Amino acid sequence: MSFIKRPLLLTVLVITIGGFLFGYSTAVIAGAMLFIKEQFSLDPVSQGLAVSVVLLGALGASSLGGILVDRYGRKISLLFSANFFIIGALISAGAANPDMFMLGRFITGLGVGLVSVTAPTYLSEIAPTSLRGGFVTFYQLAITLGILIAYLMNFVFVEEKGWRWMVGLAAVPAVLQLLLSPALCESPRWFLGKGCDEKAHQVMQRLGLKGELADAHRVIASASWSILHRRGMRLVLFIGLAISFFQQVTGINAVIYYAPQIFEFVGLSSAESAVLATIGVGSINVLATILAVWLLDRAGRKILLLIGLSGMTLSLGCIALAFVFYSSSAALISMIGLMAYVAFFAMSLGPITWVLISEIYPLAIRGKAVALAVLVNWLFNYLVALTFLDIVDRIGAGAVFGLFAALSIIAFLFVWRFVPETKGKSLAQIEAMIRRG
Ligand code: BGC
User: Fold this and answer.
1) CA of 184 to the centre of ligand 1 (A)
2) Mean pLDDT in each 10-residue stretch from start to end of the chain (437 residues)?
3) Are 342 and 284 in contact (CB under 8 A)?
4) pLDDT value at position 222?
5) Which of 240, 255, 282, 291 suits a disulfide with 148, CB 3.0-4.6 Å?
6) Per-residue DSSP letters for 408-431?
7) Ligand 1 centroid distance, CA of 275 (Å)
């Protein structure tokens, strides 16, 4: 790591604060909802809306984010997202009525959507080739830390029913990100794409990316969506969209957003123990992601995905069986299964989705293609979050987890057949590989 220059380190740090905000803002609702529904006397439909409105905002912003990221640059987009986080946190924390709360959460969602288009692209473009997987995984690590801190804040403020603190505190890291933003270097590859070679050179030098410089030049940056007519390009677009889809439909956010309820299904009766078990989930999520940071550029993306998906399938299968044949030992099995499932997700599909979508697209369409993949991600995130409890009600938790297991098997087959190994290849080499079909 000694060859990482300070400006590069600072840029990575400021970008990853965005990941933290993403994780915190989406997960904090788990505990805050307990009190918000009381305060505003929300019926179940409005409760569902209050949880998912942030995801709607994210959907909206990811559809427009690609244009912003490509046209005005990665840095401006990141700063926009920080502003959305601040305004959203303040409006929802100070909300005098449900509508105002929903508005605040929607604005927060705009920040989440924009950051999820910007941060992975930005990170993969400033990373030295040999560390690219690790850099983008830092972003996932920041998401998981955000989730964990949100769960902890839920716990800290639970006694005083301090939901305003829980949602409002998101403004703090966002302000910090704005304060540190002068340290951000714009992506040199974005400069190259805009024909500003001189600036690209300067930034690459500043970031210490000498080896990457010549390589980046080999990429033809003037094409557009017409590039999709070339061999291999449609397939590559499809791979990014599919991996984004699988990241959500294999059930991660059923666990992240509804962990306390799931722990109640398996027999943890007090709210306090359910929240504590949830903190356990958050911690395992962080620890397994740290393992992924270390493994990604060593073992490779594909093998980790295959191992992770196998583990996810097995643990989901155990949870499903435990729910079907319910007994006191089944409760224990399903809790261990849930923890194992989160660990396998965190070392594979969690980070690698972001790594792959940020590196497999050609520079010419990167911003927009990443935005499309992120849009798919938020769409299915939204659908799972909105329907999970209802479907559990209709067909039972066992069947739902069985379905997630079946989808994990399909994801495994998909990765095995279609996903290319990109470890150790520069972005330009990946692009050349794809252009060759
Ligand atoms: C996913 C989120 C999920 C988080 C869990 C991210 O990669 O995109 O939807 O909540 O991982 O750690």
Assistant:
1) 25
2) 78 95 92 86 82 90 85 93 97 96 96 94 86 85 96 88 94 97 89 83 82 57 58 83 97 85 72 78 95 87 96 95 77 86 97 91 80 92 87 90 97 94 78 72
3) yes
4) 45
5) 282
6) HHHHHHHHHHHPPP-TT--HHHHH
7) 19
Nearest alpha-carbon partner for 155 in 168, 166, 164, 169: 166
pLDDT of the residue at 432 = 75
Ligand 1 atom 6, closest CA: 350
Q: Which residues contact 1 (CB under 8 A, 6 or more apart)?
A: none
> 354 C-alpha vs ligand 1 centroid, how far in Å?
10
CB 77 within 8 A of CB 117: yes
Taking the model in full, what pTM does it have? 0.88
Supply the pLDDT for residue 30: 81
Going by C-alpha positions, the residue among 17, 318, 4, 303 that lies closest to residue 132 is 4
Nearest CA to ligand 1 atom 10: 253
- Protein residues with CB under 6 Å of any ligand 1 atom: 140, 143-144, 147, 247, 252-253, 256, 285, 350, 377, 381
For ligand 1, atom 7: residue with the closest CA: 350
Which residue, by CA, sits nearest to atom 1 of ligand 1?
350
